Amino acid sequence: MARRHPAGNFKNPKSFKDFKAFKDAGDDIGSTEINPIFARPEEATAFSKSHMPQSESLPETAYQVVHDEAMLDGNARLNLATFVGTWMDERANRLYLESADKNMIDKDEYPKTAEIETHCWTMLADLWHAPDPGKAIGTSTVGSSEACMLGGLALKRRWQHERKAAGKPADRPNLVMSSAVQVCWEKFCNYFDVEPRYVPISREHKVFDGSDLARYVDENTIGVVAIMGVTYTGMYEPVKRIAAALDEIQRTTGLDIKIHVDAASGGMIAPFIQPELEWDFRIERVVSINTSGHKYGLVYPGLGWALWRSKEWLPSDLVFTVSYLGGDMPTFALNFSRPGTQVLLQYYMFLRLGFDGYRRVQQTLHDVATYVSAQIGKMDDFTLWNDGSDIPVFAWTLSERPERKWDLYDLQDRLRMKGWLVPAYPLPADLTDVTVQRIVVRDGFSHDLADAFLEDLRTAVNYLDGLKAPMPSESQHSGFHH
């Protein structure tokens, strides 16, 4: 028996009269009207947004409805808020379509894709100066959030093994990190019963740098997280200085605490732009690193990487051997079935660009970021928080001017009117009184686009500076979240 729409038999209205009755009936979520140009005879002229249609429609019609709705998301190239890649070349797009059906978890059915995954993380182990890249161990993930959680789980499990072997309790683990960590670390601690210990940032210590670290660690500390590219501002945390602080703690207390580097962004910037900077496996305390292939790895969304210095740092009881679709395979992941195409895209980019190509791309992004930050720094209304000389990301605050009638949230809204997404938000705990605005320079944000943005920025500031009264607003807060 056919289902009946709550308002009557209007599940698939075919005339304007039916459509009007369908809408007037008060569908609980609403409905999507189909342009008559796209609707074919005997097809619905509207789809409910809360009920699956009773009958089929032609693929052309369904495509046009979805296409038109998604089009309203805006232009991803003008999104200066996200770190996630929004552009790849034509051949990458072709490869994406050709491999969209591959399931990364099914290594028996897709052995070459599995082999390519190993090629990729071995290349990363070499890029990050693993003592012996062939003896490192790694895995692809859906993104850096999953990779961070795998790194945290390995730290926790190894700590538990050591505590139990020593006959000590292992029920109160803690993890030390900056108050400016990405929310995935808060999730890790929440989901896996680990106490988070946040080292606050301040105007004197804009990043976690190892200062006063001894106050936060103890025998229950499973590890310390260092960030190569803080999400709030793009600044590097000095991994080598943090490691030196831990060396001193071990000398005085005997506590041997390891580091996981969250290099979601910096892991694919520092090796090419700051090769002399020691942050990776060159530092003995660094036992694991993660990065996002879909950020400065230059791949579309859906790819992260987690690597360990050697197999000894990934406890074997976290790795499952699963019999699946005709073969046995090891797996260490929070997800099971997931796309394999992003792994192939990462391999494509490694082959396509090589080290020199990545260096040129990242240097261009770096040059654009420092150019735009310098131009913004010259404007009287702004004070740079940082200049984009680490990863190509920078933030600024409003300079002091009591008579100003606007704030960064107003500027955010004015820029959005031109299509630019440039978020304004408060800094984390202990600096929540400081509001910054941030730009992420990604592949596709050229010098020409940068000049177009700066022109729109100056126009917006001139408009706001001309205000005689504050902009009307019910509340001044950011809808942006890290």
From TrEMBL:
One of the Pfam families matching this protein, by short name: Pyridoxal_deC
Cofactor: pyridoxal 5'-phosphate
InterPro entries per record: Glutamate_decarboxylase (IPR010107), PyrdxlP-dep_de-COase (IPR002129), PyrdxlP-dep_Trfase (IPR015424), PyrdxlP-dep_Trfase_major (IPR015421)
GO molecular function: aromatic-L-amino-acid decarboxylase activity; glutamate decarboxylase activity; pyridoxal phosphate binding
Catalytically driven reaction(s): L-glutamate + H(+) = 4-aminobutanoate + CO2
GO biological process, one term: L-glutamate catabolic process
Enzyme Commission designation: 4.1.1.15
Name of this protein: Glutamate decarboxylase
Keyword terms, alphabetized: Decarboxylase, Lyase, Pyridoxal phosphate
Family listed: Belongs to the group II decarboxylase family.
A GO CC term assigned to this protein in UniProt: cytosol
